[in-house]
């Protein structure tokens, strides 16, 4: 992991800052966590936080980018282990279900960031939106490989099922939401 905006690897203090910020941003929300709290819990000075990341916005973007890298790697592992394109598309839902098993009921960090960050130019929003675009394109490619008549429409539907499952799990406590979405995705891909 490199510090935002540079090619320098994170120092041990920078790693502690990012790990602490990631935990706090996810558990408490981005807007409620200040740099003082991050510095205190990371065992560094506020100056160190700014030296490593430059700003809270850059730290938020680094938190989301790291989470996005982990998510993409997780999905990649799950889809690579699946059979054909239909099975790989459904494996995205399997990856989501197993990813969410270990989460607190705070749900998707990217969705949470989109709700919290009101500046349309915030670097964290760019990371969150890019993850959702990537997920749609993943579904589009898999739908095309599976022979969908309209891969764009299939991708939109699969993304809506995927994101809807996340929201139903997070806000309504529907613990079977991903399995329900996966069944609907399977029906769609079987047509």
From TrEMBL:
<dbReference type="GO" id="GO:0003677">
    <property type="term" value="F:DNA binding"/>
</dbReference>
<dbReference type="InterPro" id="IPR011075">
    <property type="entry name" value="TetR_C"/>
</dbReference>
<dbReference type="Pfam" id="PF16925">
    <property type="entry name" value="TetR_C_13"/>
</dbReference>
<dbReference type="Pfam" id="PF00440">
    <property type="entry name" value="TetR_N"/>
</dbReference>
<dbReference type="InterPro" id="IPR036271">
    <property type="entry name" value="Tet_transcr_reg_TetR-rel_C_sf"/>
</dbReference>
<dbReference type="InterPro" id="IPR009057">
    <property type="entry name" value="Homeodomain-like_sf"/>
</dbReference>
<feature type="DNA-binding region" description="H-T-H motif">
    <location>
        <begin position="34"/>
        <end position="53"/>
    </location>
</feature>
<protein>
    <submittedName>
        <fullName>AcrR family transcriptional regulator</fullName>
    </submittedName>
</protein>
<feature type="domain" description="HTH tetR-type">
    <location>
        <begin position="11"/>
        <end position="71"/>
    </location>
</feature>
<keyword id="KW-0238">DNA-binding</keyword>
<keyword id="KW-0805">Transcription regulation</keyword>
<dbReference type="InterPro" id="IPR001647">
    <property type="entry name" value="HTH_TetR"/>
</dbReference>
<keyword id="KW-0804">Transcription</keyword>
